[in-house]
């Protein structure tokens, strides 16, 4: 009766990886229990998401081709755009959120256009990110979640969406995204690891807290409807500061490394997986998160429903 914090199925967002090809359901080695899905089979997973009452999915795409500028990111025939159309036709009420970045689509694996082969050109990248966002909205996405961390990215995407007639599409900004070692399993899953260098030039130093608040403030000024802290577990102090400082819906991303460590320890029998995961979800909510992106979403939904 006096419990202060509750976790609900309605808090959850489930990440989905869509890939080229046919009849593909391939377990992601670094994210056990999660799969690469081809378009002809992705509805198997979406059906389960809807049946469990999870309100939203976050789509990531592995493209059929890559180039220097990531042009497959705005190709309407690629997996993310095709998945948006298919899901929206069957489940119009399911919220489709799409990741907007170039790392999955560029041959070098960086989140923007490179100059001199090593440095991301921020300003040349912005219009390309806007093209990706508009293509997703045209395909049926309900929300755009840009994860690239370029300066001015929210403004560029907001203006492009508005100009294309999608002023109703909200933006969930990866506002405080840290240059974290916890992303390792995801980069294998999305085939998005940089071929050279790292992303410290445009992602945040994990040592910085005040900078996170400045980044969130800038994104809100540019039009972000929802802000995010990523990763979540090692940055709960940032989550709480953002929650207490800004009057905006706050999302956390329970990232791949956090997930993989739990799964590995559970496989060894060293931890009680259900208790650990649910305690973690409570921690996110207690710190102030309203939404949780997590690879545990299917299991959490089942546990909450006593399945």
From TrEMBL:
Annotated Zn(2+) binding sites: 101, 103, 111
Single GO MF descriptor: porphobilinogen synthase activity
Active site: 177 (schiff-base intermediate with substrate), 230 (schiff-base intermediate with substrate)
Database matches in InterPro entries: ALAD, Aldolase_TIM
Ligand binding (5-aminolevulinate 2): 256, 295
Binding site residues for 5-aminolevulinate 1: 187, 199
Top-level EC class: lyase
Cofactor: Zn(2+)
Keyword terms: Heme biosynthesis, Lyase, Magnesium, Metal-binding, Porphyrin biosynthesis, Zinc
Gene Ontology CC, one term: cytosol
Involved pathway(s): Porphyrin-containing compound metabolism; protoporphyrin-IX biosynthesis; coproporphyrinogen-III from 5-aminolevulinate: step 1/4
Residues that hold Mg(2+) according to the record: 215
Lineage top rank: taxon: Bacteria
A Gene Ontology biological process term: protoporphyrinogen IX biosynthetic process
Similarity comment: Belongs to the ALAD family.
Function: Catalyzes an early step in the biosynthesis of tetrapyrroles. Binds two molecules of 5-aminolevulinate per subunit, each at a distinct site, and catalyzes their condensation to form porphobilinogen.
Subunit structure: Homooctamer.
Protein name: Delta-aminolevulinic acid dehydratase
Organism of origin: Phascolarctobacterium succinatutens YIT 12067
